[in-house]
Structures
1.
Amino acid sequence: MLYYYKIKKKRRFGAKKQLAVACMSVLLWAYFYPGSFATVVPKLNKEALPSLPASIAPIPEHPKPKIALKKPVTRLISLSAMERAKKELEYEGKNREAAELNYNLVLLKKIDKGGSASSTNSKTLKQDIAKTISYFSAGNTASKSAQILWNYDGGNLAYVYYPNYGVHFNPVTTANLAMDYYAKGNYKKVVKIADELLDNATVKEYPGVGKYYLWQYCFDLQFNKYNFPAPWASGMAQGLVLDVVGKAYKITGDKKYVKAGEFILNSFKVPWNEGGVTDTDEHGNWYLEVAATNKLHILNGFLFTLDSIHNYYEVTHNPKAQRLFMAGVNEAKSHLQQYDLGYWSNYSLLAGDRASYGYHKIHVDLLKKLYDITNVPEFKTYADKFGFYLKNRFIDIPPTHPSFQAISTLTERGVITSTDGWFGAQTQISKSEFVRWLARMRGWKPSTYYRGYYADIKRDRADWGYIEAAFDNGVRLTDDKGLFNPDDYISRADMASILCKAFAVSTEKNEPDYFRPELKITREQAANMLYKLSSRGQL
């Protein structure tokens, strides 16, 4: 442990000796005390946080398709032709591609048994199968990652290649494509996409509601422990398509889009378990991103849906849209506390389902926007809280983590920063990163005039200013070749040397054998070191 010693005035250099003792004692304390930052704890890996493939976040820029089709398939093909295509893939030894095509053929037979009510889904799936055949016949192979296919086969809908499922129409991705065109002023393309979306809607009826439009996903969805069979609908898809239809009306003034909007709005009045997308309680309506269950209640998809309904209302002033929007607002403000983990936000209501950095940021942005629209205080409260977490907390460092206090304090002080929301406690820390932390702790501003103290630290490094500022303050870490070696991981001995140089303290005394100076330091250990020194007035 660190102890405070009262320094007598006549011992002029006592403070430096005290610091040397402090540096050594912190390292020894870390090594011997269980539960300290020197104790090796199980590494918390950056798990694959849940997200729906290509169907959640808006896509600001669309890449060019990485495919060159030989013979684009622009019409539906017969079941026998589909079977022949599968056999050709098998004959060519493309077994995985054949398996993905077969998955869709089996699914098509199941949907066809549903009778006339499933005719649109059957049509959509047949289009998906045709696109899958076209995709593989062009030389593309089955892969482990999804790929968005824009303007596929010359059409206006967006398709996505999904591992194990083949190529499928995605209404959310298509709507996002339309929004991208709208932002760029390509209004003709927006109208074309809106028209093709309406042509591919499933038309249903519900007692007391009447006719409504629905867009469904024709592939199975696996989400954590849940498996939702195709077809399944999405409130987020309904909302985004509604927004596109509203923009088509704004562009053209054609009342057919207002009529179509009425049918889309009707889908929000149908319960999720009876063919709609809405879960209702005493507070209001929750529009389900995955309308195959009411167990998830995915936050970002719901907030996107509210934003989309409001966008449509702004164009049409439809009172039904206003009522549906306010029913969602009342529901949201009543349940936001369920998504507050005290250091991060939850993606859904599933336990431990923390949002990724990107989705957490989406929560913040959408809550701010909804507050600007409604002035509902709950939106501002949680936008501010989640925004604070975004800047000062980490996904993998909950309040129960033994180093939560140290890491959080240093983050709030601006010593530790992150661009992806992860801290990586057991990741080894590099020399350059530790020097950055130390410089911020000591208040050393980055140099603005490049002097080139080290041969391997050029101006193109983002942190050269911190490294040269440390050099100017006595932390000179040149090896025998004049190199800094910024990416080398530092050891205990390195850290002790750096801290002592920062305070001009002698390190002549030999460390005991059990100090293990060669052991590398983790980011957690480095954070604890700086925190404990700063809390005792050393930094």
Note: The first strand starts at residue 147 and ends at 149.
2.
Amino acid sequence: MDTSYGNSRYLVSFKVKATGEWGKFFTASEEMKNILDQISDIEDGFPFETTIVSEIFDGNKQKFSFT
């Protein structure tokens, strides 16, 4: 998906297990996109359960990753 922040981003939808609330974020992370591509190649790969953690870098940028 192309956005004003860049091209070839993925939109990740997630559900917070504790509250049941839905959220979403865009990612250009090659690491996360590679993992999502691998999961999409698996029959019945989506949806899947994981923990998403965030890390702050360069002062104000946020990186998400699967654990």
Note: The first helix runs from residue 30 to 40.
